[in-house]
Amino acid sequence: MGKVSILIVLFWFQSNAGRTVWDGVYTSDQAKRGQTAFAEKCASCHGTALQGTEGSAIEVDAPPLVGPSFLEKWREDDIGDLFKYIQDGMPREAATTVPDNVKLDILAFLLQSNDFPAGAAELNPQAAGKIMLTGKDGPKPLPTMTPVRAVGCLTQVSPTVWTLTRAFEPARTHIPGEITADEVTTSQTQPLGTLTFKLPNLDFAVPGLKPAEYKDRKVLVKGVIYRQPNNERINVTAMAPLAPACGP
After folding, report:
1. Backbone phi, psi, residue 32, to 5°
2. Residues with Cβ < 8 Å from 202, sequence gap 6 or more?
3. 149 - beta bridge partners?
4. What is the pLDDT of residues 131-157, one digit of tens each?
5. What is the CATH number of domain 146-243?
6. What is each CA distance from 75 to 18, 134, 150, in whole angstroms?
7. Looking only at Cα atoms, what is the longest distance across the chain?
8. 189: which of 17, 36, 51, 138 is 20 to 30 A away, CA to CA?
């Protein structure tokens, strides 16, 4: 992506005054507890150094939890999605055996292991959804074929053609088929931007969705982004209204 797209992403973060993992979002004590819990609950699959076991002789094929591959998988998403992933699915086939507060400690340890700094307050579930995971150089546009969420105005160009206008650069999502109440609440205060994305086959994209009901309204869209010159589009998997109109 070009310099203009990068500037748009930076402006989005600045205008939302959002926190990132570089702002000290967990404590050293919390990470220390998480290290102990990780060794007991997670290391057998992900390795004692969080290096993962992909391609090894171990039966479980677990991804690394440190380094470039971890960052690329989770960057430009809030760590609330990462916590939800751990909360709902880890350890595999035994997710209910580890309490949520312990999983938060483990998440703090993952952040520490990736060199994100500690702070004065412990990470909690409410804060996690408002903290973005970015690289040291700040937010960057997401690549094509990434599941994303985006806020903008639903605009009808013709009877069968829909676009998302006045949008900001989309953020990553790991739950593309679902929009939570917390996501709606957070997105309602997100300002509009200047980007436009085509929404192919929107009338048939999501069972039960009637785009006409949200026409000219501010909406939250989830889907898969495809990037081509003059043809940036999002294949929609979920949509929710945020306001009765798009505003000025």
Report:
1. -65, -45
2. 162, 209, 211, 236
3. 171, 222
4. 999 999 888 889 999 999 999 999 999
5. 2.40.50
6. 14, 5, 15
7. 59
8. 138
CA–CA dist 116, 20 (Å, integer): 10
- Residue ranges with strand state E in the chain: 19-20, 77-78, 131-133, 146-158, 161-167, 171-172, 195-198, 218-226, 233-243
Q: How many residues does the chain have?
A: 248
The CA distance from 100 to 209, in Å, is: 34
DSSP state of 118: P
And the tokens for 198? 């085509």
Mean pLDDT of 219-241: 96
pLDDT tens-digit readout, 113-126: 999 999 999 999 98
Kindly list the domain boundaries of the chain, sorted by start residue. Answer: 3-133, 146-243
3-133 to CATH, choices 3.30.70.1790, 2.60.120.330, 1.10.760.10, 3.30.70.20: 1.10.760.10
Determine if the peptide bond prior to 91 is cis (ω within 30°): yes
Where do we find the tokens 């010159």? 229
For 70, the token pair is 């971890």
